[in-house]
Specification:
About 20% of the residues are buried. Helix content is about 10%, strand content about 30%. A six-stranded antiparallel beta barrel has the order 5-6-15-14-11-16. Strands 9-8-7-10 form a four-stranded antiparallel sheet, covered by helices on one side. The protein has two domains: about 5-90, no CATH class; about 125-235 and about 290-325, Translation factors (Elongation Factor Tu (Ef-tu), domain 3, Beta Barrel). The chain contains five helices and 16 strands.
């Protein structure tokens, strides 16, 4: 085996190699990588790949080689770039990930690890924000709560990982005249055999196999004491200045200031770069985008009155739609009061 040239001696050549890792060797005037300690490349043809460029980190791997053939031609025929993770998978130091379906883990793959919280909610409901009030707990303390009206929801479609690539429920609520539906909406409701509702909302959950089309979901999905995430569209504030939008303190209000009290100040540089950088905090539209408030506590869930009380504030105006799902992060380092 020829020594590695000086131009290829770098961090990769000096790095400590684990058993089963690969090292650069000379092959027909070029450079290839073979498993460490396994001998010349002809003996381990399936792990050989050519190197192009001046750095050993830029490696290409070829498919299995035919012994006795033109090695250089086979290496150049079909070669694909190899990442460091793929080489560790091949050496057995990392478990090979499961094959994905439509870019997502296959059905049955756990979405949580030992000691970790779920990355996808296991249950969710849709409500309408009524407003805020206060209730008293067992210790006679006033607790600010947001009142949500949760009407019974009807399942219109059940999406599974086998068909759509992910699990979700499509629900509707309320009543809507059939004359106000367009043809696609009318066909969608009629195919499901569900009465048309006010809106169609998709609730992303971890497993939707326990639900069926036409099933009703009410406020009893949640219980008092549970932690939820509230997803809603925040109140739109329109075009606002830098002080309101980004909490700038403004400029001096007294001596030497002339009609620049709320001005944002300098936003650009000189002739270099002669432009305003993207992301510079300036005046613009504020609000009106989706906001998620996490780790809110459910104070009360009353399916008879179709009400859910959640401790704290929830984004959006009164009458706005709110999606409640069980929290995906949990209470880390916090104990409920």
């Amino acid at each position: 085996m020829q020594p590695v040239p000086a131009g290829l001696r770098g961090g990769a050549a000096r790095a400590r190699r684990a058993p089963g890792d690969v090292e650069p060797v000379a092959v027909d005037g070029g450079w290839a990588r073979v498993a460490a300690g396994t001998g010349p490349p002809h003996g381990v043809a399936s792990q050989v790949g050519p190197i192009f460029g001046s750095s050993p980190d830029r490696r290409l791997r070829a498919p299995a080689l035919v012994e006795g053939g033109d090695l250089g031609a086979q290496l150049d025929e079909r070669s694909t770039r190899v990442s460091r993770a793929e080489r560790w998978y091949a050496s057995g130091h990392l478990p090979v990930p499961a094959t994905k379906v439509n870019g997502r883990p296959p059905p049955g793959t756990p979405t949580t690890q030992e000691g970790c919280h779920a990355t996808v909610a296991t249950k969710a409901i849709v409500g309408e924000k009524v407003g805020m009030t206060q209730v008293w707990d067992e210790q006679h303390r006033a607790v600010p709560v947001t009142v949500l009206r949760v009407a019974p929801m009807r399942v219109v479609q059940v999406k599974t990982a086998e068909r759509e690539g992910y699990s979700a429920l499509q629900v509707t609520w309320g009543v809507r005249r059939s004359g106000s539906l367009n043809k696609p909406e009318e066909g969608h409701f009629s195919a499901a055999g569900v009465e048309p509702g006010r809106r169609l909302v998709e609730l992303r959950i971890d497993d939707a196999s326990a639900f069926e089309v036409g099933q009703q979901l009410t406020a009893d999905v949640l219980a008092a004491g549970e932690r939820v995430d509230a997803i809603a569209v925040s109140k739109g504030k329109g075009f606002t200045g830098a002080m309101k939008r980004h909490n700038f303190k403004g400029q001096g209000a007294a001596h030497g200031n002339h009609k620049k009290h709320r001005a944002p100040g300098s936003v650009g540089a000189c002739a270099t770069p002669a432009r305003v950088f993207k992301g510079t905090r300036m005046a613009g539209r504020m609000g009106g985008h989706q906001v998620t408030t996490m780790n809110l506590e459910v104070v009360q869930a009353d399916p008879e009155r179709e009400l859910v009380l959640v401790k704290g504030a929830i984004p959006g105006p009164s009458g706005g739609m709110v999606v409640l799902r069980d929290t995906v992060k949990g209470t880390i380092g916090k104990a409920p009061r």
